[in-house]
Amino acid sequence: MPVVDVDPDELRELTGHDEKSDDDIRADLFDLGIEFEGWSEDDEMQLEFAPDRLDRLSVEGIARSLRYHYGDDRGVYVPSTNSPEWTLVAEQTPEERPYITGAVVRGLDFDEESLESLIRIQEKLHATMGRQRAKGAIGVHDLTMLKGEAGRDGTGKSIRYTAVDPDEETFVPLDSDEEMTPREVTERHHMGSDYADLVADMDRYPAIYDEIGLFSFPPVINGRRTEVSEDSRDLLIEMTGTDQWTIDHMCNILCYSLSARGAQIERVTVEYAENAPGEHAGRTLDRPDFSTETKTVSHERIESIVGVEFDAETVIDCAERSGLDAERTEIGDDELAHEVEIPPYRVDVLHPLDVIDDIGRAYGFNALEPEYPDVSTVGSRHDRSRLEDAARDALVGLGFEDLLNFHMINEEENFERLGIEPDDDVVGGGRPVTIAQPYSEAYTILRTWALPSLMMVLENNTHRAYPQHLAEIGLAAELDESKNTGVAEHRTVGAVLAEAEVSYEDARARLQALAGAFGKGLETPPTEHPAFIPGRTAEVLLNGETVGVIGEVHPEVIVGHDLEVPVAAFELRLDALR
Amino acid sequence: MKLPRAQVAVLKTADANEYRTITDVATEADLQPETTTGAAFALAEEGLVTVTEETDESITLTVEGEQYVDEGLPERRLYDAAIAAGADEDPVDLGTLIGEAGLDGDAVDIALANFARKGYGTVDSGEVAADPDADSDADAERVALEAIGEGEDVADALAAVLGDDSQTDAQGVLDQLERRGLVDRAESTIRRVQLTDDAVTALMEGVEAAEEVDQLTPDMLTSGEWRDAEFAEYNVEAEAEEITPGTEHVLRQTANRVKDVLVGMGFQEMQGPHADAQFWINDCLFMPQDHPARTHWDQFALSEPDQIDDLPDDVVERVRKAHLEGVGEDGEGYHSPWELDVAKSLDLRGHTTSLSARYLSGYQEGELDPPERYFSVEKVYRNDTLDPTHLLEFFQIEGWVMAEDLSVRDLMGTFTEFYEQFGIEDIEFKPHYNPYTEPSFELFGTHPETGELVEVGNSGIFRQEMLDPLGVDVDVMAWGLSLERLLMLMYGFEDIRDVHGTLCDLQLLRDVEVVY
Fold first, then answer.
1. Cis before A432 (ω within 30)
2. Stretch 176-235 of chain B: residues touching chain A, C-beta under 8 Å
3. Is A285 left (phi over 0), alpha (psi -120 to 50) or beta?
4. Residue A351 is nearest to which of B296, B310, B465, comparing CB atoms?
5. Are A136 and A61 contained in the same domain?
6. How far is A255 from chain B (nearest CA, A)?
7. Terminal-residue alpha carbon distance, chain A
8. How many domains does chain A have?
């Protein structure tokens, strides 16, 4: 979940509520679903919130939400924008990163805090919507350092987004004095190398030019020439990415923040050449796009979801207090509905339901009276889960301590330490389900049987009193191409008896009792299994079908687990008791 | 007269004319003192003996006390060495005297502390001056210690050495010795017995020992021999050998309690695959394919097998469309790529909502007929950091209700009812965000022991973008909760790794108290 550090004084200033104490602010934020996590080292509030409201990624965004919450603002707000002077031309752009958007921002009066806030919101947008810059990357430049190329008609100013040979062009990147090629930046620039993966597969790298030359290498790094400082008053913002909607909305969120700092937004023209890849080839876009969206929400649906009867005015009031606008309308046969207008910084409203959630929050969900749903159904346990419980009860009655082990294990524990190998034709010898990127070497596969887990518990409890009679009923899995998922999952019943004097017969006696309890005829013809002592190993046959193995565990396995007592064991499929 | 063997022995050993101590009687009769006491009281009840009691203090030397009896008290050895070195006239270097007196370790500190306390002299700037008038032979502590060593009466010994008019009282000296850890004092009850006239008469008439048996045997029962048998008394207060009972694992017990509650509330149990296609785990839940929680940082992807064989084509197409275009007239998609290969790839399920998705897809096949309630208490897998409260595998309680026109209030009412069964009251609902529910709520409850507010679950009403592609046209509300969190709340475990997994501690599991 995103965490944003916010200076409470800045919040008081931006909301115009000097009188609010830190505690007041914390309580107000909680009402918005924003949780105070603690104070940062710089005495800022660390605020955590769910990743839907990405328009709250900045102190300006949080201040805006608070002003609606306080009732200082109502309804949709759209800042005015000036007509475009600059053009962003997209020409022969890389196919892997075809899209660009942007804006010009004028009249900024930066101080340390507001510049810091601009840097932070970029980082937060990169981390969330931008998917670590893969989906969208932001470049902010000092406009006065740019020299626009004349447009095609000879007027206006333009910059050009295109693709370059990674070794042919050079520029001085941020935080460096050296002319480097884009490839050199990805190889040895301390910030550039962090994003090398994003361009690694590209033949030609993304690059943005003005008349002077290359000034930005998205999504990796900007050039030093256009670096923004506290003295910058006018900015050019460009965003490139793999999805136009995403970068347009990242741009909207950023422009709303800068506008809240008193800046004037100036639109730009985005001009896709005929040969540009992507869905906008040959089209011209006017950005940032501050047009609003509308959703039509049925009044009855609002009532049924919230569980309260509303009059239309309450709905409109709640919408306005959420920064939305709502107007009465009708759908179908005169059914009351609301046409709700959504501002351009909201990226979370996909469906009318999301509007209902906003209305519910503004109304106050916690004010609702819980009611038990008045519908009657009949409850029941699953057949398999009842069988598992009955078998567990029987084992407990036989004196076993019931255990619960992890399903994840590694090859060494599951196979080698029990003397078997994957694909051996013995109990436990299935081919294992393998995890692609395991958490650690201890958990690389799903276990094919339970005996290895039980042996590990014995190994870890040699300091505890004996006898240790342990049993587990749990999942075991192996590859099986005949299954839909390619995995055969079953519940296995494993049991070990560890104490100074214990033998095959002790295990046989208990298995006999278990089989008898489920009305199964037990036979144990001799067999061989590497985990058990030859001549003291048998197949478990229930009603004539082979379902498991029983025997005295081989001394090599016992010593291998650092045990000093004999162990007798059995393992069988749970469904054999059905 | 027939009496148990021990009582007969006591009767024959005790005297009619004088009171004899139980210890004496026991020694002479060759009985355990406890047995003798028991027999004496039994005889007293029969009016055959009288028993008197008095409290006695026994004083014994500690190991250190015995050492000082042999070697002399450290302060006295220091004093003697000082006198020998002429410290009664001119102060002598402390170091030299310690060597002379043969003191080392703690004995040095003990000697110095008591030297000054007893007025043997003064120690100043590392030099010792001895008081020539001090009489170390008449040291009351030394006298008392030696008297105890000899088994003599302390008060008598003190009077003999210090004179009757000495102000030194024996109790004060003993208290001091006890503080120094040189003696142990214990109170004991001394009991004495004497025969009554009835006993004398009985003895003259003849008293025999009844036969005592140790173990009741089948033979004795069938022969009737038990009628004349006298059963040897056991020490019924003694602890017996420890046995380890068979027990159901505490987390299974908790799971079963949850299952009982949910079945009681009308829920049916679900089951399904642990290794499943991302389609059922994520795509059906309207999680965009580039959602951060879908990377290997959160869920375990499988390398073998890596793809599900097949998925229902119609559902796949509707899910794809929901992701790309949204659902309904005003719906909007995710602006994220959607690939069938990703949907078909296999993961260990990160939640059991994959089971809910599979069950809900049965609605269009007529397998569900609302109203319906379903639940599962099954394992899920998360690539989280292992710590006392987080495991890579844990149990999730999953539940959902399908009915017409479900509201947020129905959701609240269901949880309030569920959590009350576990003593968790005053459930609070914090509006929250999940990709697959709207509205969504985090649930907070008050810890029954600590009163703390703790998160107990996550809930919501399934989005249209989840239900429509599954072919469901009625409302479904759902919730998820970690079983381990409930367990920790109920039992107060601090480290879940002691309970779940191969590192579990058998003793801890054996010591768990029953909760019902």
1. no
2. none
3. beta
4. B465
5. no
6. 21
7. 46
8. 4
Q: How far apart are CA B274 and CA A408, in angstroms?
A: 11
Nearest-CA distance B218 → chain A (Å): 26
- The whole domain housing A310 covers 293-365
Q: Which residues in A lie closer than 8 A to residue B332 (C-beta atoms)?
A: 293, 349-351
CB A314 within 8 A of CB A302: no
A371 occurs within a structural domain: no
A-chain residues near B333 (CB < 8 A) = 350
- Among the partner-chain residues B271, B296, B391, the one whose CB lies closest to the CB of A437 is B296
Measured CA to CA, the distance from residue B435 to residue B452 in angstroms comes to 29
Query: Per the CB < 8 Å rule, is A401 touching B510?
Result: yes
On whether the CB atoms of residues A46 and A38 are closer than 8 A, the answer is: yes
Q: Does B408 contact A349 at a Cβ distance shorter than 8 Å?
A: no
ipTM above 0.85, yes or no: yes
Q: Does B369 touch chain A (CB under 8 A)?
A: no
Nearest CA in chain B to A371: B413
Contact (CB<8Å) B333/A350: yes
Beta bridge partners of A81: A265
- Residue A268 φ then ψ, to 5°: -125, 160
Domain harbouring A311, CATH code: 3.30.56.10
Which residue type is seen at A531?
A
One pLDDT digit (tens) per residue for chain B, 516 residues: 778 888 888 888 999 899 999 888 989 988 888 888 888 988 898 899 999 988 888 888 888 888 888 888 888 888 888 888 888 888 888 888 888 888 888 888 888 888 888 888 888 878 888 888 777 777 888 888 888 888 888 888 787 777 765 556 788 888 888 888 888 888 888 889 999 999 888 888 888 877 777 788 899 899 988 887 778 778 788 888 888 999 999 999 999 999 999 999 999 999 999 999 999 999 999 999 988 777 766 899 999 999 998 999 999 999 999 999 999 988 999 999 999 999 999 999 999 999 999 999 999 999 999 999 999 999 999 998 888 878 899 999 999 999 999 999 999 999 889 988 888 877 888 889 999 999 999 988 877 677 777 788 899 999 999 999 999 999 999 999 889 888 877 777 778 888 888 889 999 899 888 877
Interface test with B, best of A374, A385, A489 (most B CBs within 10 A): A385
Chain A residues lying within 8 Å of B274, measured CB to CB? 407, 446, 475, 477, 489
Segment 431-470 of chain B within 8 Å of chain A by CB: 431-433, 438-441, 461, 463-465
Q: Does A445 lie in the same domain as A399?
A: yes
CB contacts of A338 in chain B (<8 Å) are none
Q: Is residue A389 part of a domain?
A: yes
Query: What are the structural domains, with CATH classification, of chain B?
Result: 2-60+189-209 (1.10.10.10), 252-275+350-511 (3.30.930.10)
Let me know whether A280 and A330 are in one domain. Answer: no
Question: Do both A110 and A201 map to the same domain?
Answer: yes
Tokens at B418, concatenated: 């569920």
Peptide bond into A79 cis (omega under 30): no
Report chain A residues whose CB lies below 8 A from the CB of B266: 376-379
Which of A29, A64, A2, A68 has the alpha carbon at shortest distance from A261?
Answer: A64
Domain assignment of residue A393, yes or no: yes
